[in-house]
Write a structure and sequence with these properties.
Elements: E1 3-7, E2 10-13, E3 18-25, E4 34-39, E5 46-51, E6 58-60, E7 68-73, E8 78-83, E9 92-98, E10 112-113, E11 117-122
Parallel strand pairs: 2-11
Antiparallel strand pairs: 1-3, 3-8, 4-5, 4-9, 5-6, 7-8, 9-10, 9-11
């Protein structure tokens, strides 16, 4: 059974930083793209970032470009999201995703989801 477990969320003041981690178990994703999505209260879930299996290609939503960095460690079956210069509008539940398809077409459709971790940025 595939499990994606996020960690690293929390409360941070505007301008601060957080690093999210997502550890996958149940199968290896070393040949699959992985990513992060988020859902703010009252809004639909949206794409944040994705990374190809080789880490050669990364993809970001315009709203986080230049502030967030996605990376992965295939040996640990883990993906990370470094979030800097956080803004109150970044407040959301952040979801890890694995087996993300449609990178080239920007459709970003995952096969697996984590349970989510709350990120709250205070103003």
């Amino acid at each position: 059974q595939v499990q994606l477990v996020e960690s690293g969320g929390g409360l941070v003041p505007a301008g601060g930083s957080l690093r999210l981690s997502c550890a996958a178990s149940g199968r290896t994703f070393s040949r699959d793209a992985m990513g992060w999505f988020r859902q703010a209260p009252g809004k639909e879930r949206e794409f944040v970032a994705a990374i190809s299996w080789s880490s050669v290609n990364t993809y970001y939503a315009d709203s986080v470009k230049g502030r967030f960095t996605i990376s992965r460690d295939n040996a640990k079956n883990t993906v990370y999201l470094q979030m800097n210069s956080l803004k109150p509008e970044d407040t959301a539940v952040y979801y890890c995703a694995a087996g993300v398809r449609g990178l080239g077409s920007k459709e970003y459709e995952p096969d697996y989801w984590g349970q989510g971790t709350q990120v709250t940025v205070s103003s």
